[in-house]
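To the team - glutamine complex, inputs and output below.
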Amino acid sequence: MHPTDFSLRGALDALAEGAISSEELTRAHLDAIERLNPRINAYITVTAEQALARARESDARRARGEAGPLEGLPLAIKDLFCTEGVRTTAGSRILGNFVPPYESTVTANLLRDGAVFLGKANLDEFAMGSSNTTSAFGPVENPWSRRNDPDARLVPGGSSGGSAAAVAARLALGATATDTGGSIRQPAAFCGIAGIKPTYGRCSRFGIVAFASSLDQAGPVARTVEDCALLLRSMAGFDPKDATSAEVPVPDFAAACARGVRGLRIGVPQEYRLDGMPTEIEALWQRGLEWLRAEGAETVEISLPHTRYALPTYYIVAPAEASSNLARYDGVRYGLRVAEADGDLRDLYERTRAAGFGAEVKRRIMIGTYVLSAGYYDAYYLKAQKVRALIRQDFERAWERVDAIVTPATPSAAFGMDEKQDDPVTMYLNDVFTVTANLAGLPGLAVPAGLDAQGLPLGLQVIGRAFDEETVFAVGAAIERAADFRALPGLRAGA
Ligand code: GLN
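Output:
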């Protein structure tokens, strides 16, 4: 077995038995990155020297009997998490030279537990996108390809496309990601891996470059549901540096994966049955429900009536918050500065932001400032906030009848890099099944469940009650066991 093929759990066992060292494991990943990253572009920055040094330190800690829960595991870090002394770009030219003087809480937690960082993973600029084609550092390629058209280059999904592609192609054992409207679950589904957006407040947002603060959550992507559970346990936890971080205990998520689903009531929302959705996705959804019934769960038809307003609501709330958060990039304190010798302050702002932001980010800022402007605030932003409350209430009603909800993760499989690029609204439709969980603050997990006729992965989504990730993991792991998803992407290390 190639060392890059380990699950996180498998690698922990091999490290504990002394069958492999963290240095060997890390070197195997760095070699794979050297060979495949020029094509896949999953990493913006590779920190090879630092990774090897940390791996050696990790091996020494293990030899002293001081191994942490993630001791020696090589991971990719989405380039939205500030890493002390390591360039953090958010996929944007405006942060192209930004080296943070501090570490995000989530990455600090992973380092505390012994993880080794291979580098910073590519993403859509400021995490805005569903295809990882808006990065200032170039697009990421999905390691999977279509059976009948193997030369077509496909997107990995977004915005955490680099994280998902790296994990699928065996360029990392797992990765951090963030999800504002689907950016963990959609790329995980497109790349045939698992990923969870936890409950809002479960992971600290301190040190994560902000997109839409009331929606942003960090979470892991990995090749198994249990691996996501292991990573989340380290990433999560109360942080006094984030006022929205929740002071709740962090349970043993991995133990929950083995719970089974007997006696659970699984909600099937009728509003997630879309006109024109590929029949393969509908069929996979039905198969997933069948598997859960076979394991002793009961499936219940439910209604989430405001689902149809979720996308328009999200595409008002998210740009509004983004326009406010991105006001800080002014060319004065850090990041890019473009100035003319005789220009005034306003000229500095305009030149810096014109040169620093890409087209999608500018579009979001314009939408955001428009919906927040004096004349339109009530009509758009305030209305969207009210609809958001109704969407949240839909779920609260559902939890009276069910313990978890299962839906498709995405309305399509991965698409071509040149497809869906002409019209932003077509791109926004990717998020139709995922934005609801962000608007309501609920945990959502994507798990690979099958292949379409072209041999591309398709995922199912499990949504749970706030702070009940354990049930989400139990249901996700049951789907994973039944699906027995073993297909592999063509582009991968060790192939
Ligand atoms: N695709 C969505 C957007 O473009 C979600 C992005 C995200 O979750 N960060 O806003």
